[in-house]
Amino acid sequence: xxxxxxxxxxxxxxxxxxxxxxxxxxTILVLRLGYVQIVKGQEYKAASEATTTTKYTWNAPRGIxxxxxxxxxxxxxxxxxxxxxxxxxxSDMSTYDIAEKLAELVEIDIADVKDRDKKDYWIMKNxxxxxxxxxxxxxxxxxxxxxxxxQLERITDNEINSLSDAEVEVYKIKAILDSSSASVKxxxxxxxxxxxxxxxxHLADLPGIDVKLDSQRRYVYDNTLRQIFGSIAQIPEESAxxxxxxxxxxxxxxxxxxxxxxxxSVLRGAKEEQSYTQDRTGSVTDSVTTSTGQTGKxxxxxxxxxxxxxxxAIVQEELSKETTAEAAYVVMMDPKTGEILSLSGKxxxxxxxxxxxxxxxxxxxxxxxxxKGATVLTGYQTGVISPGDTxxxxxxxxxxxxxxxxQNMGTINDLTALxxxxxxxxxxxxxxxxxxxxxxxxxxxxxxxxxxxxxxxFAEFGLGVETGIxxxxxxxxxxxxxxKLGNLMDLAIGQFDTYTPLQLAQxxxxxxxxxxxxxxxxxxxxxxxxxDTDETGEVIEEFEPNALNKVSMSQKNIExxxxxxxxxxxxxxxxxxSTFRGVSYDPAGKTGTAQVWNxxxxxxxxTLVGYAPYENPEVAMAVVxxxxxxxxxxxxxxxxxxxxxxxxxxxxxxxxxxxxxxxxxxTANADEIEE
Length: 675
Fold this sequence. Notes:
By secondary structure, the protein is of the alpha+beta class. It is built from 25 helices and 24 strands. The radius of gyration is 38 Å and the shape is elongated. It is a single-pass membrane protein. Keywords: Cell membrane, Cell shape, Cell wall biogenesis/degradation, Membrane, Peptidoglycan synthesis, Transmembrane, Transmembrane helix.
């Protein structure tokens, strides 16, 4: 009996313990539930309703570039660009892993991957084999850099060639991802439709990878003026702060050179920005456009593309015929406004002729007698000669060296000296400026002042100084410094200092424009974009003709040199008269031949400057043909005549078109009146 009572007490105690435990647990649960609902309720409610907002930007297309007649020169094609952004989110996955995945999705051009790059990749892939290429002794004595250098040197061609194209693609992608050029790297521009779809399908597995809508420049006339348009590229590292301060993203493409760089602020579009709101499931709940995009403004150039194509063809044909010439350049401009009508440059490269349009701006050469107009005007201005003064043209000896003209001309005045291109006449001007008495062989006590005087007046025409063209930079030629009297005499005939074709064009334009030096320019207008129609947009800004300076010489003396230039083209003994005599457009100009030492003898730079018509100039030109072995070649004159013929033929055709349009308008008006 006692045992049963004891057993019942034990059972009852256990049941009570269980009930008490359940009660405590239930109490804790109730308290916890209360805490969650009352204390943390608002916090959890907010969490359940939490959303994320992400801002996206879309690049706007750059402005279109037109010629002066409204013909499109540079357009935009939409493309997709594959990018990588390095951030904390990408740290969980190595750039090698990302590169491997991307190489399976897109095709990468590996033509620019060098053998040294492949060696780096081979070492990374084959670390054990690479380690075997150095001895234990070398490992113990050399530093890591020296060991790595030995490994590179000992990799064989067979080992390099063992890398597959797919592996090299991985290496190139990884190199881009690891580069420090910008936080956002461009991996590939111009994804195919298939690549675009594949990458988007795998974006969740590719941290840092994105596809951006971009635009790619398309050049309507292929390589024509391609170098002058310039290029666009990702923001360089050294300019990152400057561009980001101006609102750029580091992945943006910006003008890198020439016109694209010069007019970056004009051509650049304003980005469209949108904010997307997503809930916890990733569904978009709202989208707001925070900034509407705007295509870049359009740039209208002074270039006449029809004339440009003709000039390019002429230069190409003439350079092809004159097989001893190295290169040829042409600049055509309006002498009254400074508008550049055509820039052409071609260079012989073995059996091919390649584009070198930038040479009109940057390359400088000895220009020969083409600069004699500046020499004569300098002589007038310094008072060492007066219009009509004569010298006897015969060989002269300076410092034991004989200097002469291309032929002995006897007694000649300034006009004949220009017409027949007398060196000796220019030598006498230089000697007088230097204070040298040729009869007594004495003087020239202040060489520095003599050189400064010549260059000062040459600079008034644009020779040896910046022309002011609207490009990021330009060449200014070579200044030979202060030398002997003989070099000063060479300066007077274009055989000492060097000048660019553009400087030569500005010089002759200044003479044509009665001594007013105009700033040459390529921008004619800036217009609002209007790409929905064939018409260009409204004009925002026009380039106002800018007179840089008026030369010191009197109008009478300028007209004297203009007459000498006219005789060059049409006089009985003019050096270009056989080429230009009888043409309808009445040109004036000056030929030039400069000797160029080639190591064993002389080649020749053949030049020609000119303008037309003589009385009311519309166009000025400079032709420069370099390193011609055939000194009797007339390639400079042939190019000059053909490009002026092309200009005035085009002008006549345009006038005929305008007349026909006027006739059509008048007929239409008459029909309206009759109705």
